[in-house]
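Quick one before lunch.
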Amino acid sequence: MRRVAVWLALTMGAAIAQPAIVGHGGPVRAIAADGQHVVSGGFDGTAIVWPEGAVLRSHDGAVNAVALMTDGRVVTGGADGHVIVSRDGRVMRDLCCHSGPVAALAVQGELIASAAWDGTARVWDGSDVAVFQGHDGNVNAVAFAPDGTLITAGYDGTVRTWRDPVRVLRLGVPQNAMVTAPDGEIATAGADGMLRLFAGDAMREVMIDTVPLTALAISPDGAQLAVASLAGTMMVLERVSGRITTVLHGTERPIWALAFAKGEIVSGGAAGVVSRWDAGSGRKLGWTGAAPVMPDVPAADRGAQIFRACQACHTMTADGGNRAGPSLYGLIGRKVGTWPGYRYSEALIQGDMVWTPETIDRLFEIGPAAMLPGTKMPEQRLTDPADRSALVQYLAHIAP
Ligand code: HEC
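Model of the heme C complex:
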């Protein structure tokens, strides 16, 4: 309880001293930046182009991934499976579609690559699309090698370089994010809190956190990496030495997105705020150059509506106590079966999964009995992906 009070006080203090621009009606899921613009994608289904604050509403569901093309075109990937190219706030092309949520995007010249939870990655080149299939389950991350070769990483713990023959690196741990450096080195962010760097056959590992890593970014010159975790840890590293140079002290938990912009780090996460940091000193810079916007939050209402079905058995606060089920306070980032003082079934005590938007979505897609065999949580499913996404958004928003 004491810890919660302190956390709230810090958040509010930061808001008063340095008004951050709150533009999203829920957690920020994705960020991309070039020298001029920052684009953020949110669980609220919008993408916002900063510093103008122009709001794009082209997706039905969360905007999970964003990218900027060299001429200022904005690419967004949504939970609706669409990849959409916009310019000046107008949709230019809808590259329809993945059959599952898009999780990540990469661009190189006119090439756009997308990774999705339908188990595929795609590369769109003008009107042509190439489909890359081989991962066992969700593809979480995508990047281009300097020579244009596609590289993907996924929930199956593999990193695949799509040459002929395909090169498969088996890490055995789900990989959540990936970037490539100008010299071809690959960096990945793992669910085991480990940052891994691959050059040829050599691999280096840097321990960042004990919980899953969620976001990874590389500076345009490839010299620095920024990495963040579900627990809100944010760090800047020198890539070549692997040395941690800066720790950014945020108050958000989790951080979902990072990008470099002219010596600064831009971050987004649970608080729905886009924050700027000095990459050298780690000092928070707040946000300048735009007036706050506060769009409406239609999807959050749907999530609240769905959550009514859970309230009979779950509270959402740290001190709300347990009903038939445990409190879901701070659920995202929590390991399954670990709420103190709740008597879980053996199925959950033995589990080693972490609750993320993805695993919560899956819980209600396939049902508790299939996901956690032997659980005492009654069978229930949400068949509409939009409903699941609204529920996840609500859970992340109400008790991040
Ligand atoms: C009728 C009671 C009931 C309802 C309704 C219910 N749950 Fe549960 N839930 C439980 C029980 C009991 C457990 C603990 C299961 C165990 O220990 O096997 C649980 C566990 C969970 C867990 C795992 C928590 C942890 O600490 O690992 C999550 C997540 C969850 N429920 C989410 C939800 C959501 C979201 C809803 C609504 C869509 C919901 N539940 C509706 C009874 C319920």
